């Protein structure tokens, strides 16, 4: 007998029929003799609906109340799934984050899990229950309801698996695993049987929303065996989805590039005509950091006659606020000529641990984009990724062009690895 944590996302829970299917799948694992903890998301579209409702009543909502509202979608889901399980004769008990005692910090809408009390869950498992836990939510030390950021039910799933030292955490979603890129954008995307933890972490942090980044971080920290699978297969399917692995196995498929991530969440800001002298980068980014705004890519041009341009990206939600800070504080303080912003950009990233040992990946990337006349506005590299910023309208084209150029539609072969 093993202990399995299964997480079902919004589409998997999207209708009464889908919930019945989830219940049937859970029943299968119970009948096979496993103990099962199920984490569920709100029904698809529900969290968006709730947040829109809140903003209709108050365009500048109090974050505490917003979390009270946003967390309710998951509460409905746990009750519904418990009822569907009862109907099948499976003993099941629903639990909110508060009832489990998923303790988080107090950063509303992006809270971090601090600890999980597994006592109540263990008791219910011991009496033969399936425990159905609400994803995405917790409580802070003062008992306030918090939420874990969009896509946060993944993190609840992996964190519970870590707390319970479960044998496996299965993330059921509307695709049958992790692909070389989002199959919705690139029809040639190929499912990967395995992906290393490091690559998954990079893909998630660069925008692949198939797993929330914090769930991957948790899996890494506590060595949770994590798998992504489809809830749309037959409930008796033995398909294994994609396994996130921790060791670079010699026999494992080892492509130089394992995937392409993209996101439209950033905006670019350029401070034009900046005097090129010590302390200027700090004068520009200091006030931005003081306002708790995270900066991603940064570029400073070579200076001409002592003047230069300084560009950086921030999250699109922080764009207006950053522009205001620069206009009102920074521009007069450093005597910059202008502040120019563009929130119609996208970041496209190649990810692969093979980049460590293979040169020429970036130049092949740039050549492929230039052949399609896609202008690269910014570049950033690390050991296992190369990212470019392009005009948002070319994002999908860029993903498809790169997918083809790096032959990601084909399994890694010796030949391709040498290419
Ligand atoms: P859930 O509601 O189950 O949490 P999400 O919509 O959050 O599902 O995540 C699944 C989606 O992630 C897929 O439908 C797919 O469009 C998207 N996705 C992005 N990148 C990838 C990738 N590399 N592999 C698979 N799916 C991806
Ligand atoms: N319901 C939440 C969201 O839509 C959490 C999740 O689905 O993981 O972001
Ligand atoms: Mg998700």
> Number of DSSP helices?
14
The CATH architecture classification of the largest domain is 3-Layer(aba) Sandwich
N- and C-termini, Cα separation? 46 Å
Q: Portion of residues in helices?
A: 25-40%
Portion of residues in beta strands equals 25-35%
What ligand molecules are bound, each kind once? Answer: adenosine-5'-diphosphate, aspartic acid, magnesium ion
- Give the number of DSSP strands: 20
Rounded mean pLDDT score: 94
CATH homologous superfamily label of the largest domain: Acetylglutamate kinase-like
The top-level CATH class of the largest domain is Alpha Beta
Overall tally of structural domains: 2
Rg calc: 23 Å
Structural class by helix and strand composition: alpha/beta
Low-confidence stretches: none
């Amino acid at each position: 007998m093993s202990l399995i944590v299964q997480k079902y996302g919004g589409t998997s829970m999207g209708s009464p029929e889908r919930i019945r299917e989830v219940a049937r799948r859970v029943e299968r694992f119970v009948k096979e003799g496993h103990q099962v903890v199920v984490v569920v998301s709100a029904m698809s579209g529900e969290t968006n609906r709730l947040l829109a409702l809140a903003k209709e009543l108050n365009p500048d909502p109090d974050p505490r109340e917003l979390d009270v509202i946003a967390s309710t979608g998951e509460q409905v889901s746990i009750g519904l799934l418990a009822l569907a399980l009862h109907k099948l004769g499976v003993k099941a008990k629903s639990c909110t984050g508060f009832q489990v005692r998923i303790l988080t910090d107090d950063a509303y809408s992006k809270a971090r899990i601090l600890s999980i009390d597994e006592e109540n869950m263990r008791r219910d498992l011991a009496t033969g229950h399936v425990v159905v836990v609400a994803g995405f939510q917790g409580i802070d030390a003062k008992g306030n309801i918090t939420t874990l950021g969009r896509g946060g039910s993944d993190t609840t799933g992996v964190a519970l698996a870590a707390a319970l030292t479960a044998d496996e955490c299965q993330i059921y979603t509307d695709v049958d695993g992790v692909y070389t890129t989002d199959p919705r954008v690139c029809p040639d995307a190929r499912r990967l049987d395995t992906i290393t933890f490091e690559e998954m972490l990079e893909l998630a942090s660069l925008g692949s929303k198939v797993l929330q980044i914090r769930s991957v971080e948790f899996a890494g920290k506590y060595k949770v065996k994590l798998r992504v699978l489809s809830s749309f297969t037959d409930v008796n399917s033995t398909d294994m989805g994609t396994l996130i692995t921790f060791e670079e196995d010699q026999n494992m498929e080892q492509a130089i590039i394992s995937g392409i991530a993209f996101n439209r969440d950033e905006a670019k800001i350029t401070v034009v005509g900046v005097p090129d002298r010590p302390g200027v980068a700090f004068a520009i980014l200091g006030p931005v950091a003081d306002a708790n705004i995270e900066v991603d890519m940064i570029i400073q041009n070579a200076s001409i006659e002592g003047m230069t341009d300084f560009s950086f990206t921030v999250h699109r939600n922080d764009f207006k606020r950053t522009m205001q800070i620069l206009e009102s504080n920074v521009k007069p303080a450093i005597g910059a000529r202008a502040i120019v912003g563009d929130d119609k950009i996208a970041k496209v990233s190649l990810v692969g641990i093979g980049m460590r040992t293979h040169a020429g990946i970036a130049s092949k990337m740039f050549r492929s984009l230039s052949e399609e006349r896609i202008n690269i506005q910014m570049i950033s590299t690390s050991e296992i990724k190369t990212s470019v910023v392009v005009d948002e309208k070319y994002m999908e084209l860029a993903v498809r062009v790169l997918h083809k150029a790096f032959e990601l539609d084909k399994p890694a072969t010796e030949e391709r690895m040498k290419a």
